[in-house]
C-alpha cells in the first residue's frame, strides 16, 4: 500500500540496542514497533485502553502476529510505522501495519496484528466496546472491511 492509505503513523529512530552485529534491526523488534504504534493509534483516537480494562474486566489478547520483512532497517534510521484498522469483527480488531523510512515510500516491512476482546473472568471472547468501534469507524471510514 502507499503511505497515503494510512491515516496514522508513529515515528521511531532505531536505537543501537535494537540492532544485530550487522547494524540491522533484529527481527523481534518489529513486533515492538508494531505494538507501540498500535498503542499510540489508540491514544490518538482518543481511546482509554487501560480505563476500558478497569471498567469492564475485559482486555485484548493478541491472537495473530505476522511480519513480512521487505528490506533491512538500519541503526540510527528514522522510520515511521503506519497503522490502520482493516477489519472490525464482533470481538476482534485486525490491524495492518507498514514500516517506511521517514517521509519515503520505500517499504521495509508489512504486518498484521489481530486482537480479540476477552472477558478476563469468563475467559471467553466479548463484543468489542462500542466506544472503540465508533472511534475507529470515524477515523477509518470506508476503509473498514466487515
Q: What does this 3D model show about the protein?
A:
- The chain has 146 residues and is an alpha+beta fold.
- It has a single domain (3-141), classed as Thiol Ester Dehydrase, Chain A (Roll), CATH 3.10.129.10.
- The protein contains 3 helices and 6 strands; from the N terminus they run βααβββββα.
- The protein has helices at residues 29-44, 49-56, 130-140; strands at residues 8-13, 58-69, 78-88, 92-101, 109-119, 124-125.
- Strands 1, 2, 3, 4, 5 and 6 form a 6-stranded antiparallel beta sheet that branches.
- β3 and β4 form a beta hairpin.
- The chain is globular and about 45 Å long.
- The two termini are 19 Å apart.
Number of strands: 6
Mean pLDDT reading:
96
Largest sheet: 6 strands, antiparallel
What number of structural domains do the residues give? 1
The CATH architecture can be given as Roll
Strand content: 35-45%
CATH class: Alpha Beta
CATH topology: Thiol Ester Dehydrase, Chain A
The coarse overall form would be globular
Amino acid at each position: 500500500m502507499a503511505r497515503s492509505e494510512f491515516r496514522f503513523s508513529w515515528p521511531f529512530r532505531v536505537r543501537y540496542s535494537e540492532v544485530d552485529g550487522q547494524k540491522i534491526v533484529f527481527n523481534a523488534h518489529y513486533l515492538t514497533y508494531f505494538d507501540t504504534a498500535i498503542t499510540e493509534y489508540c491514544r490518538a483516537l482518543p481511546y482509554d485502553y487501560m480505563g476500558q480494562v478497569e471498567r469492564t474486566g475485559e482486555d485484548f489478547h493478541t491472537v495473530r502476529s505476522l511480519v513480512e520483512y521487505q528490506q533491512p532497517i538500519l541503526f540510527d534510521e528514522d522510520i515511521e510505522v503506519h497503522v490502520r484498522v482493516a477489519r472490525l469483527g464482533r470481538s476482534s480488531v485486525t490491524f495492518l501495519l507498514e514500516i517506511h523510512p521517514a517521509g519515503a515510500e520505500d517499504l521495509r516491512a508489512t504486518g498484521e496484528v489481530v486482537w480479540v476482546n476477552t472477558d478476563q473472568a469468563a475467559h471467553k471472547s466479548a463484543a468489542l466496546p462500542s466506544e472503540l468501534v465508533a472511534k475507529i469507524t470515524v477515523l477509518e471510514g470506508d476503509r473498514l472491511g466487515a
